[in-house]
Amino acid sequence: MTCEFSNLRARLKEEYNRNRFGEDINKRIRSLSSQILRIQDLNTDNTKLGKLVEIYEKLFNTFNTSKKGQLIKRITSTEDEILSLILTKLIIPSNHFVKYLRAARKESLQQSLDQILPKFLTIYVHAIIVNSLPKTTEVTLFDFFTYITKVFIAFNFPINKFTKSIAKKYLCGAWNPDKFCKVKLNSFKESLEIFFSKFFGSIKNYRFYVKVNKIYSEFLENLDLERTDKRMIIIPTTVRKDYQGVQTIKLNKEYIIEPMGMYDQENFRDDGMVLFGRHPDSDFVFPEDKSFVDQVSMIMYNVNNNLYLIDCSERSYCGIKIEYGKNIAFKEGALMNLSKSMLFRIDKIEYEKITNHYNASDQINEYEIEDTRMHSTIYFSCLEGLYKDINFKISTKVKNSDQIKNFFSFGFGIEDQSPDIFIPRETGISHRHCEFRYDNENNWFLYDEKSTNGTFFLMKTYEELNSKVHSRVIQLFENNNPENFAVIMINRYTFSVRKFKEDTFNLG
């Protein structure tokens, strides 16, 4: 079915790219294309998926008609059938469905499904509340979630801290300290529609809000939480200059991350998260460069007096800078970026037992000691940069010697110091940029040698990067680390992050 859905979307894209029928109709065709992604996420049974294909085939047959009125009628019919399919799990009586749909279309007959669906859900939920509480003029935010739970379950979306923070933002105001704030029924329909449009509106919103919602529930909600009282500071330090789009992130500005989020910013939500991406509702909004930047690239969560990171990008990647004097262990599949210009992958690590034996003695006995160390060979390749598609090999074996070579340098070198892996200076690499080091327990580590432009260890493995799935949760600061300072890379931007020293935030 996945291939069939991809084919449907490709055919719809081809049709609206031809732009034969004007912008109003094109907008509705694009919206019908995006609904396919939404339906795929609903885990609909095969019978209904087959019905979906039939609905779209009828639409394709109408594209060749010369009568615009006939095409509009078929598009409207297709929208009604798709909406009914999407909302199957709500089990709405047919007479009510027709009534709500008519009301949702009342504003304009040229609306797309991206606009109709949030309106429909607003009318549906409002009707449930009014019928359940006929004499009530207001409802608390807490009670409100009782009435929308059924909607979110129907779309396989959890209601969590993130969902609640969005509802509070649009119904009561993000800065409202009252968790049980009340909403007047005669004035909240407009705010409710905005809330629903975030999760059920345009595909742009869908990819942002639903992705954050699901990642939060799957990974962040289950952290061993302690109520944090620490502020964090984040400072953009470099930007990617070749982006296509308007630059909104201000270099060297200090942004404060409060326990509930970025309190002083326009896009504040009191969920403790900081969102990075090109979606305008992100906390840090990157330029609108679709070829390189995702709607949401990274999630940062302020909890347990620490920051937890998830790389959820698909077009790029995120990494953490290795500070001078520090190291990080690596295994097969690890990725590392040097100077934001060269990306390397560890393809394979082989080990070979050393057969040396040594004679030893104590005051009573003589005995033989076997060397437990192992020789190791690393095969790695360049995925981005000057050496793209070139393979490399290093080995701890030293020719004509029993010794182990336990470090391998990267850089452009200086007069009497040649690196093991030469990389030209013009790439931004330092003369002695970083090293692979091998210890006595047969472990490999990546060290930075005080490079000018940094050595970054990626948050994703190659398998995660290639499969376009998000990373595991990464704890940014080490426990009991007095420095509490780090540099992260997101879409080739770098940010320095640190904790406020001797500073607490009054949670009340």
UniProtKB/TrEMBL annotation:
InterPro entries this protein is in? FHA_dom (IPR000253), SMAD_FHA_dom_sf (IPR008984)
Q: Which domain of life is it from?
A: Eukaryota
UniProt signal peptide: none
Q: Where is the FHA domain?
A: 410-457
What CDD domains does the annotation carry?
A: FHA
Which protein is depicted? FHA domain-containing protein
